[in-house]
Amino acid sequence: MTSKPLYLRQNVLVEPLINQWYAWTYLVSPATSALYITNLHLKIIRSFIASPQIHISALKNPAMIGGPFIAHDSSRVGEIKDLLERTVKEQAHVLEFAEAVKTLNELLTTEADGYSLESLYQNISEPLKGYTELIYDLNNHPSVRFIEGLLYNSYYYNPSAQSVSLSLIHQDERSFALSTPRLEENEYLVLNKPFRNEGLDELFKMRETPQSLGYIKEALSIKSKQEQLFSSFFTEEKPQISSKYTDDAIRIRYFGHACILIESKNVSILCDPLISYKYDNCGIKRYTIADLPKSIDYILITHNHQDHFILESLLSLRYKVRNIIVPRNSGGMLEDPSLKLLLQNIGFNSVREIDEMEEIKIEGGTITGLPFFGEHGDLNIRSKIAYLLRLGGKSIMCAADSNNLESKIYTHIHNLYGDLDILFIGMECDGAPLSWLYGPLLTKPLSRKMDQSRRLNGSNYESAIKIVKQLNTKKVYVYAMGQEPWTTHLTSIKYTEESNPIIESNKLIEACRNRGIVAERVFGHKEILL
User: Fold this and answer.
1) Cα–Cα distances in Å, from 354 out to 25, 368, 388?
2) Angle, nearest 10°, between helix axes 77-90 and 42-50?
3) Residue 458, CA atoms < 13 Å, CB-side half-sphere
4) 527, 253 contact by CB (below 8 A)
């Protein structure tokens, strides 16, 4: 085996998979994974097998890209059938778990009438026994609390179903990731390793620290039939790596969507990492993995949506992350799995929860959690938080997709913290209906009218301008719009100038500028110095 030092190419695409589906949080957490497999994946697969042409035709319409359609042609029906048979066989216990959840909810609907729930425990189906607690809220509405810590230590959590697909990427365009299972392709190498495998860290370190091919092959147990393709992912060429930031000013770099790197000479903070790959002729100017510091002191996660909590980026960066901060969880609700437990179970060691108005002291400043309303269809989800960063005497708020449903919040915040230097706010103000993301978890279907009324939306102009005024902010940047082409595999968003979020954000920018406030809708690449 050669001992020549090699680097991992900057354009090696990393796709985490679970049972051949692109992995995101609801496929990792055991309870939500069971319902997604049962109520979404199997339905999509069966639909494709029955009528592949419907899927092919639907995806020719840009408006249908984020729908439940498989992006394979009819020649792959046999492979999809094999996947169906394998899923039904290997995931039989998971399907039983999902059925038990449905049965338990029906039991509570008919039997939980405000009196003691004690007698109902004997009627819980075997797959859920010992993993659930029956509860009422203060209005006597019954519900179920899942004991997530036990579920992660049960056979409902199966790390062997996890894998990582590697390939070379030469363009931003990728199919919508959440609705199409990964099938075998000549250019894809699948590492059948759980996400917590330390060999993955050794691989991703090689983007900046060379190792011999023999070393990494041994670390990842590469088979002889994989060697040729695996070798193509490496190069002798030393990459250009970002040097440590040492200036006195606070530097903010926008990487796309909601991903922002905030640095002082003492600390680095990366919010909602979604990082582009680097390749020749990439067109739109952007920062990539090579522009990140050698060590990231804090990663901040605002909420548990697939375009803000991105396993693809997080796993690639794990080796250089010192701390990761996530919103505090309410504990065991099906729609709101613990991000802390999830990260710990996939190999992140220093994970901390932050609550609303809780402050974490960092070198030269603080990180404070702020309330985050909206964008979750009125579900009782606590795993969402905005961040106020105070660093070097400057204040920066990352509001993500917060919708200003109750503007008095920002009056209270301003009373506590004063004027704001920079506001980053998302204005994807249309949003998908509730069922687009949470449908597989719903215990009973919503009417179309009800579903459409409960949108996963951020602020429009009226909501956003109130925040700007109440916080008396000096600079406003509209972000988290999903416009960058390297984000659309997660957002499926393709705006035009007539799209409502563009119109609404244009109104905000104009109104801010008329008030003497610096304002911009950021796209692709931006550096700000404070």
Assistant:
1) 19, 8, 12
2) 150
3) 28
4) yes
d(CA 319, CA 330): 29
Q: What region does 364 belong to: left with phi over 0, alpha with psi -120 to 50, or beta?
A: left
- 181, 21 in Cβ contact below 8 A? yes
Local structure of residue 434 (DSSP, 8 states): H
Query: pTM for this structure?
Result: 0.96
Place of tokens 């995101």: 24
Q: How far apart are CA 386 and CA 479, in angstroms?
A: 14
Exposure on the CB side of residue 345, measured as CA atoms within 13 A: 22
Residue 41 contacts residue 151 (beta carbons within 8 Å): no
Q: Please, where in the chain does CATH 3.60.15.10 lie?
A: 251-437+444-529
Q: What is the dihedral sign for C-alpha 38, 41, 44, 49? A: negative
Q: Which fold has domain 251-437+444-529?
A: Metallo-beta-lactamase; Chain A (3.60.15)
- Dig out the tokens for 124 from the structure: 């819980």
Mean pLDDT by 10 residues, the chain (530 residues): 84 97 98 97 98 95 92 96 97 97 96 97 97 96 97 97 97 94 95 98 97 96 96 95 92 98 97 94 91 97 97 98 95 94 97 98 97 95 97 97 94 97 97 95 91 95 97 98 94 92 98 98 97
